[in-house]
Each structure stands twice: as C-alpha cells, then as structure tokens.
Amino acid sequence: MMQVPAGRPLAPEPGALRLDVWEVETEPDVVYVYEVGTDDAAFESHINNAPAQKFGEIMNDLVEDWTMVIPFGHSVAS
C-alpha cells in the first residue's frame, strides 16, 4: 500500500481536519481518498463548496464509475 499523508487541506475549511490519499498495489485502478471532518455539517459544507464540485466534474470526465463510498461520520471503523 502506498499512502500520501496530505494532512491538513491546502485551503482550510471550517470543520476540515485531515485529507489522505492512497493506492493499494493489488487494486491497480483504485485510488482512495480519506477525509476527516468534525461533523456531518462540515462534510455537507465541504462536498457542496465550489472546489469539491469542480473536483466532481473533473472526476466524472476522467474516471468511469467513481463514487463516494462512506462519509466519515457514518463509518463503523471510525
């Protein structure tokens, strides 16, 4: 597994605590992004801001069937 600890977001958002990106050698076409926020409101604010919306548009153009799997606040392992 290769992990890039991105740490704090480049442009801090209220409630944003951490951002990590990693790949697993046995999943060659998969990239995982793990974001940590303070609560559901921070998460909703993040996914609805302009940079996140632009990221979604770019991903829709570049990657087939990309998806957000589990919001942090709803993760059992968190």
Automatic annotation (TrEMBL):
InterPro entries with a match to the protein in the record: ABM_dom, Dimeric_a/b-barrel
Domain (ABM) ranges: 10-55
Pfam families referenced in this protein's UniProt entry, alphabetically: ABM
Chain ranges passing through the membrane: none
Domain of life of the organism encoding this protein: Bacteria
Name listed for the protein in its UniProt record: ABM domain-containing protein
Biological source species: Nonomuraea polychroma
Organism lineage string: Bacteria, Bacillati, Actinomycetota, Actinomycetes, Streptosporangiales
